[in-house]
Protein backbone atom coordinates (compact mmCIF):
# COMPACT_ATOMS: atom_id res chain seq x y z
CA UNK A 1 0.00 0.00 0.00
CA UNK A 2 1.43 3.37 -0.97
CA UNK A 3 1.68 6.10 1.58
CA UNK A 4 -0.45 9.22 1.22
CA UNK A 5 1.73 12.25 0.37
CA UNK A 6 2.06 14.75 3.18
CA UNK A 7 -0.61 17.41 3.25
CA UNK A 8 0.90 20.73 2.12
CA UNK A 9 1.00 23.57 4.64
CA UNK A 10 -1.50 25.70 2.74
CA UNK A 11 -3.48 28.64 4.00
CA UNK A 12 -6.70 28.95 2.04
CA UNK A 13 -8.63 32.16 2.47
CA UNK A 14 -12.27 31.92 1.47
CA UNK A 15 -13.82 35.34 0.93
CA UNK A 16 -17.55 35.64 0.40
CA UNK A 17 -17.97 38.76 -1.71
CA UNK A 18 -21.62 38.02 -2.55
CA UNK A 19 -23.93 37.34 0.42
CA UNK A 20 -26.25 35.34 -1.88
CA UNK A 21 -23.89 32.38 -1.52
CA UNK A 22 -25.09 31.70 2.04
CA UNK A 23 -28.68 31.44 0.80
CA UNK A 24 -27.74 29.33 -2.21
CA UNK A 25 -25.65 26.73 -0.42
CA UNK A 26 -25.17 25.80 3.22
CA UNK A 27 -21.53 25.66 4.33
CA UNK A 28 -20.35 26.90 0.91
CA UNK A 29 -17.07 28.24 2.33
CA UNK A 30 -16.24 24.92 3.98
CA UNK A 31 -17.06 23.01 0.79
CA UNK A 32 -14.92 25.35 -1.33
CA UNK A 33 -11.95 24.99 1.00
CA UNK A 34 -12.30 21.19 1.10
CA UNK A 35 -12.33 21.04 -2.71
CA UNK A 36 -9.25 23.29 -2.95
CA UNK A 37 -7.33 21.14 -0.48
CA UNK A 38 -8.26 18.01 -2.42
CA UNK A 39 -6.96 19.60 -5.63
CA UNK A 40 -3.68 20.52 -3.97
CA UNK A 41 -3.16 17.17 -2.26
CA UNK A 42 -0.49 15.30 -4.18
CA UNK A 43 -0.99 17.30 -7.40
CA UNK A 44 2.18 19.31 -7.28
CA UNK A 45 5.35 18.13 -5.59
CA UNK A 46 6.63 21.70 -5.50
CA UNK A 47 3.74 22.82 -3.31
CA UNK A 48 4.59 20.07 -0.83
CA UNK A 49 8.31 20.93 -0.95
CA UNK A 50 7.72 24.66 -0.45
CA UNK A 51 5.24 24.12 2.36
CA UNK A 52 7.85 22.26 4.41
CA UNK A 53 9.70 25.55 4.79
CA UNK A 54 6.95 28.17 4.65
CA UNK A 55 3.23 28.47 4.05
CA UNK A 56 1.59 28.41 0.66
CA UNK A 57 -1.40 30.72 0.23
CA UNK A 58 -4.32 30.89 -2.13
CA UNK A 59 -7.67 32.61 -2.00
CA UNK A 60 -11.11 31.52 -3.10
CA UNK A 61 -13.57 34.32 -3.76
CA UNK A 62 -17.28 33.51 -3.78
CA UNK A 63 -18.46 36.36 -5.98
CA UNK A 64 -21.25 37.13 -8.43
CA UNK A 65 -21.77 37.52 -12.16
CA UNK A 66 -21.13 41.27 -12.01
CA UNK A 67 -17.59 40.88 -10.70
CA UNK A 68 -16.75 37.96 -13.01
CA UNK A 69 -18.07 39.90 -15.98
CA UNK A 70 -15.85 42.89 -15.13
CA UNK A 71 -12.80 40.68 -14.58
CA UNK A 72 -13.47 38.69 -17.74
CA UNK A 73 -13.80 41.94 -19.73
CA UNK A 74 -10.79 43.66 -18.18
CA UNK A 75 -8.36 40.72 -18.25
CA UNK A 76 -9.62 38.52 -21.08
CA UNK A 77 -11.41 40.95 -23.40
CA UNK A 78 -14.71 39.06 -23.06
CA UNK A 79 -17.66 41.20 -21.95
CA UNK A 80 -19.65 38.36 -20.37
CA UNK A 81 -19.74 36.58 -17.08
CA UNK A 82 -18.16 33.16 -16.70
CA UNK A 83 -18.35 30.55 -13.96
CA UNK A 84 -14.77 30.66 -12.66
CA UNK A 85 -11.57 32.61 -13.26
CA UNK A 86 -8.13 31.74 -11.95
CA UNK A 87 -5.45 34.35 -11.47
CA UNK A 88 -2.08 32.75 -10.79
CA UNK A 89 0.23 34.85 -8.63
CA UNK A 90 3.01 32.31 -8.63
CA UNK A 91 6.26 33.25 -10.26
CA UNK A 92 9.16 30.77 -10.18
CA UNK A 93 11.42 33.52 -8.81
CA UNK A 94 8.96 33.95 -5.94
CA UNK A 95 9.85 30.46 -4.75
CA UNK A 96 13.14 31.90 -3.48
CA UNK A 97 11.68 35.08 -1.96
CA UNK A 98 10.96 35.27 1.77
CA UNK A 99 7.41 34.93 3.07
CA UNK A 100 4.61 32.70 1.92
CA UNK A 101 4.40 31.28 -1.58
CA UNK A 102 1.38 32.91 -3.21
CA UNK A 103 -0.40 30.59 -5.65
CA UNK A 104 -3.19 32.98 -6.64
CA UNK A 105 -6.93 33.50 -6.62
CA UNK A 106 -9.89 31.43 -7.79
CA UNK A 107 -13.03 33.54 -8.24
CA UNK A 108 -16.49 32.02 -8.76
CA UNK A 109 -19.76 33.54 -10.03
CA UNK A 110 -22.76 32.42 -7.99
CA UNK A 111 -25.49 33.02 -10.60
CA UNK A 112 -23.67 31.33 -13.48
CA UNK A 113 -22.59 28.41 -11.31
CA UNK A 114 -26.17 27.82 -10.08
CA UNK A 115 -27.63 28.12 -13.59
CA UNK A 116 -25.11 25.61 -14.96
CA UNK A 117 -25.77 23.19 -12.11
CA UNK A 118 -29.49 23.24 -12.90
CA UNK A 119 -28.95 22.96 -16.67
CA UNK A 120 -26.59 20.00 -16.16
CA UNK A 121 -28.77 18.32 -13.49
CA UNK A 122 -26.05 18.55 -10.85
CA UNK A 123 -26.20 19.69 -7.27
CA UNK A 124 -24.92 23.20 -6.67
CA UNK A 125 -22.49 21.76 -4.09
CA UNK A 126 -21.00 19.29 -6.58
CA UNK A 127 -20.67 21.94 -9.28
CA UNK A 128 -19.01 24.35 -6.85
CA UNK A 129 -16.52 21.65 -5.83
CA UNK A 130 -15.78 20.87 -9.49
CA UNK A 131 -15.16 24.50 -10.42
CA UNK A 132 -12.93 25.07 -7.37
CA UNK A 133 -10.88 22.00 -8.31
CA UNK A 134 -10.72 23.22 -11.91
CA UNK A 135 -9.59 26.69 -10.83
CA UNK A 136 -6.93 25.39 -8.44
CA UNK A 137 -5.53 23.10 -11.14
CA UNK A 138 -5.13 26.21 -13.32
CA UNK A 139 -3.13 27.82 -10.51
CA UNK A 140 -0.86 24.77 -10.54
CA UNK A 141 -0.19 25.21 -14.26
CA UNK A 142 -2.73 22.84 -15.83
CA UNK A 143 -4.74 24.02 -18.82
CA UNK A 144 -7.12 22.79 -21.49
CA UNK A 145 -5.85 24.68 -24.53
CA UNK A 146 -5.37 21.60 -26.67
CA UNK A 147 -7.24 18.26 -26.64
CA UNK A 148 -4.49 16.25 -24.92
CA UNK A 149 -4.08 18.87 -22.17
CA UNK A 150 -7.86 19.06 -21.76
CA UNK A 151 -8.12 15.27 -21.39
CA UNK A 152 -5.28 15.20 -18.85
CA UNK A 153 -6.86 18.01 -16.83
CA UNK A 154 -10.31 16.40 -16.96
CA UNK A 155 -8.82 13.11 -15.77
CA UNK A 156 -7.24 14.88 -12.80
CA UNK A 157 -10.55 16.58 -12.03
CA UNK A 158 -12.43 13.25 -12.17
CA UNK A 159 -9.90 11.60 -9.85
CA UNK A 160 -9.94 14.45 -7.32
CA UNK A 161 -13.73 14.65 -7.34
CA UNK A 162 -14.04 10.88 -6.95
CA UNK A 163 -11.96 11.23 -3.78
CA UNK A 164 -14.60 13.70 -2.57
CA UNK A 165 -17.34 11.21 -3.57
CA UNK A 166 -18.56 13.46 -6.37
CA UNK A 167 -19.68 11.90 -9.65
CA UNK A 168 -17.82 12.47 -12.91
CA UNK A 169 -18.80 16.02 -13.91
CA UNK A 170 -18.33 15.24 -17.59
CA UNK A 171 -20.98 12.52 -17.78
CA UNK A 172 -24.43 13.59 -18.94
CA UNK A 173 -27.16 13.43 -16.29
CA UNK A 174 -30.75 12.70 -17.28
CA UNK A 175 -30.31 13.93 -20.80
CA UNK A 176 -28.44 17.09 -19.84
CA UNK A 177 -25.61 18.02 -22.19
CA UNK A 178 -22.09 17.30 -21.08
CA UNK A 179 -20.41 20.44 -19.70
CA UNK A 180 -18.29 20.81 -22.83
CA UNK A 181 -21.52 20.94 -24.85
CA UNK A 182 -23.56 23.16 -22.53
CA UNK A 183 -24.47 26.40 -24.32
CA UNK A 184 -23.90 28.60 -21.25
CA UNK A 185 -20.38 27.35 -20.55
CA UNK A 186 -17.73 29.96 -21.10
CA UNK A 187 -14.00 29.22 -21.35
CA UNK A 188 -12.54 28.65 -17.91
CA UNK A 189 -9.54 30.12 -16.19
CA UNK A 190 -6.84 32.57 -17.05
CA UNK A 191 -3.47 31.40 -18.15
How do you describe this structure in short?
By secondary structure, the chain is α/β, with parallel strands linked by helices.
Describe it.
The chain is α/β, with parallel strands linked by helices and 191 residues long. The chain has one domain (10-167): Metalloproteases ("zincins"), catalytic domain (Collagenase (Catalytic Domain), 3-Layer(aba) Sandwich), CATH 3.40.390. Helix content is 43%, strand content 15%. It contains seven helices and four strands. It has helices at 20-24, 28-40, 45-53, 65-76, 110-119, 124-139, 147-163; strands at 10-16, 56-63, 84-88, 101-109. A four-stranded mixed beta sheet has the order 1-2-4-3, with helices on both faces. It is globular and about 45 Å long. 36% of the residues are buried. The model is unreliable at 1-6 and 179-191 (pLDDT under 50).
The CATH superfamily label reads: Metalloproteases ("zincins"), catalytic domain
Q: Share of helix among residues?
A: 40-55%
CATH fold description: Collagenase (Catalytic Domain)
Oligomer category: single chain
CATH class term: Alpha Beta
Instruction: Report the principal-axis shape.
Output: globular
- The largest beta-sheet arranges its strands as 1-2-4-3
The main pleated sheet reads as: 4 strands, mixed
Task: Calculate the mean pLDDT score and round it.
Answer: 83
- Overall tally of domains: 1
* Strand fraction: 15-25%
Strand runs, count: 4
What attributes does this structure have?
191 residues, alpha/beta, Collagenase (Catalytic Domain), globular, disordered N terminus
